[in-house]
Amino acid sequence: MTQPRSVRPFYRPMRPRRRDEPHRAATPLELFFDLCFVVAVAQAAANLHHDVSEGHLGHALTRYLMVFFAIWWSWMNFTWFASAYDTDDDLYRIATLVQIAGALIIAAGVPRAFTDGDFSVITYGYVVMRIALVVQWCRAAAGDPAHRRAARRYAIGVTVVQLGWLLRLALPQGWGTAAFLLLVVADLLVPAVAERPGMTPWHPRHITERYGLFTLIVLGDVVLATSVAIQTGVDAGDRHLWSLAAAATVTVFALWWLYFDRPVEAPAQLPYSLLWGYGHYLIFAAIAAVGAGLSVSVDYERHLTHISERTAGYAVAVPTAVFLLTVWALHVRRRQRATVVVAFPVVALLALLAPLGPAPVYVLAGLLVALVAVTVLVRSRDLDRIATAADPA
């Protein structure tokens, strides 16, 4: 007798999900997975904040980009796999919980990576996550004959690269950065090579929702980090920080608005889907860095930093510009009207100039509000044109 679908078994053959499956939404397990990544993102942003406040700019940027790659790439690979092969049996849940444990190990290793350049704990957590995903790809290869070649390529490619990450720990310290960059390229090539025999059946709208949810989580980290920094200052008697809190709030609201301004969908073609998926590394990292930069600005106002006002301003301006240019490239350039297409890079350029003058955080907040106003105005005009075309009378 066939077991009802509503009863979750311990094991179910890993069949592919339909790319056109209606009403596909994020599952509670996926949401729990994202929630556990909050810890890792918060650790990366907090350590970036402290390094920049101390004036260790080159060190801060290098360590942050390296740490955030481990966080983002682990999250992204689970997300795309789950979109294609979420069976929600007990084995699938256990493997996902192992990946969550790996994410918590990564988070625990972030402080050591920043302070001592010791990536061993992060590497162990990363390998735990990736090997658990190899087990899932092996299940997919067994349960989905149509995409078996792709699943096998994923399993083999991920395994080989993980051996490389472990071997990197044994290299002399001077070789660490070069080996890191080489392994990053190898990791990024795995999906490009594995998907060539035939794309795995991930769901475009589901992927878009998942990326949007992770964007919200990173924005939530920005709100938390900034509010904690301001609360600490206010508790210490710095009441003038309320205006900075208002500017920070406006900045976060504007980032949310600009990312979610119009509905988008992950592209179905392989080259652009890779570009879209990989490009979000810059969006996620930039948003978290904005939060770190706003915390640096609070430290500067409280005279707790060893940097200039210009440097504190660039701690917010640079990630803001990166965010705007990446959203422009992935969401705006091919879908919006000419006015908005031009406005995004112009505001990004003005953002980079803002720290050259006084009160850069307030100027940046004003620039973002102006850009939001442009998008709202253009959208209103588009709606008016549609209404006029539908009812000429």
UniProtKB/TrEMBL annotation:
<protein>
    <submittedName>
        <fullName>Low temperature requirement protein LtrA</fullName>
    </submittedName>
</protein>
<feature type="transmembrane region" description="Helical">
    <location>
        <begin position="214"/>
        <end position="234"/>
    </location>
</feature>
<feature type="transmembrane region" description="Helical">
    <location>
        <begin position="154"/>
        <end position="171"/>
    </location>
</feature>
<feature type="transmembrane region" description="Helical">
    <location>
        <begin position="177"/>
        <end position="194"/>
    </location>
</feature>
<feature type="transmembrane region" description="Helical">
    <location>
        <begin position="272"/>
        <end position="292"/>
    </location>
</feature>
<feature type="transmembrane region" description="Helical">
    <location>
        <begin position="94"/>
        <end position="115"/>
    </location>
</feature>
<feature type="transmembrane region" description="Helical">
    <location>
        <begin position="121"/>
        <end position="142"/>
    </location>
</feature>
<feature type="transmembrane region" description="Helical">
    <location>
        <begin position="240"/>
        <end position="260"/>
    </location>
</feature>
<keyword id="KW-1133">Transmembrane helix</keyword>
<keyword id="KW-0472">Membrane</keyword>
<dbReference type="Pfam" id="PF06772">
    <property type="entry name" value="LtrA"/>
</dbReference>
<dbReference type="InterPro" id="IPR010640">
    <property type="entry name" value="Low_temperature_requirement_A"/>
</dbReference>
<feature type="transmembrane region" description="Helical">
    <location>
        <begin position="338"/>
        <end position="355"/>
    </location>
</feature>
<feature type="transmembrane region" description="Helical">
    <location>
        <begin position="312"/>
        <end position="331"/>
    </location>
</feature>
<keyword id="KW-0812">Transmembrane</keyword>
<feature type="transmembrane region" description="Helical">
    <location>
        <begin position="361"/>
        <end position="378"/>
    </location>
</feature>
<feature type="transmembrane region" description="Helical">
    <location>
        <begin position="60"/>
        <end position="82"/>
    </location>
</feature>
